[in-house]
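Just scan this pair:

***
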Amino acid sequence: MGELGLKRTTRFAAALGAGTGLILLNGVGFATENLQNLCWAALASSIALAGLTWAMAAGISAPLPELLQIRTPRRPLSAGGIALAVAGMLALSHASSLALARAGLLEGGALARFDGLLAAASGGELLWAAFALAVAPALAEETLFRGLLLGRFAARLGAARGLLLSSLLFGAIHLDFGQGLAALVLGLYLGTLTLRTGSIHAAVLCHGVNNLAAIFAAYFRT
């Protein structure tokens, strides 16, 4: 086997391992009734996503900041634009959750279980959850879905198809129907924001703030 073949085999094995690990870790996270276990599963899932991103990006001959869209935004948002983008994300997330709840698609699902675990968390557990369930997933998921995948799909299929396909994959990775539908809608929003700015910076911020808002809302609800 030549050097190129070895590199491709290594990348494939790394991608397969990371992808399989991600599915298993998500399954553990959805099934757990313990917040600590949920946080560890979520953090490990984010690490697996980062590994998957690396494995997929390793064989593409392009500068990493360009490939993952972590470069300085080509069309940066103003301070007011950033505030509006975050507010739009929060409003869309809230509206999606309400619509799914009224349709009965959240009953007994992952989101309802997460809310119950977070409502009973202590102060220290809340900070740990903020990192493991909000910050780490926002960084890992945006780098893969809006950075690498959206960029590659859009270049090959066009912006609209790339946006839809990357958002569908983002929804599917959550392995829960109700949460997956919400993720699909939010993925379309975050992808549009990435296409608009030419970078994932704003999408990471919106994603992280939305996750943090959901965590603290669940905690202070009781």
About this structure: The two ends are 61 Å apart (CA to CA). The chain has one domain: 3-62+79-220.
